[in-house]
């Protein structure tokens, strides 16, 4: 897994956490759901890259 890929996946996960917290604080369910989705995508990307690393 390239360093850029690792950073990108971590950034997406952190961005999602921030969106989720802001959505909770402002009672914005749409933003909260978008944050949860961003976290899931970031974690999925990381897991896929980990599998690639394991296969090497």
UniProtKB/TrEMBL annotation:
Domain (CsbD-like): residue spans on this chain: 5-56
Pfam families in the cross-refs: CsbD
Chain intervals for the UniProt region annotation (Disordered): 14-56
Superkingdom field: Bacteria
Compositional bias segments (type: Basic and acidic residues): 14-27, 46-56
InterPro entries noted in UniProt: CsbD (IPR008462), YjbJ_sf (IPR036629)
Similarity-based family: Belongs to the UPF0337 (CsbD) family.
Name of this chain's protein: CsbD family protein
Organism: Miniimonas arenae
């Amino acid at each position: 897994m390239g360093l850029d890929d690792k950073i990108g996946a971590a950034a997406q996960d952190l961005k999602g956490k921030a969106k989720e917290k802001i959505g909770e604080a402002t009672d914005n369910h749409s933003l909260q759901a978008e944050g949860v989705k961003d976290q899931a995508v970031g974690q999925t990307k990381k897991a896929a890259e980990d599998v690639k690393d394991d296969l090497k």
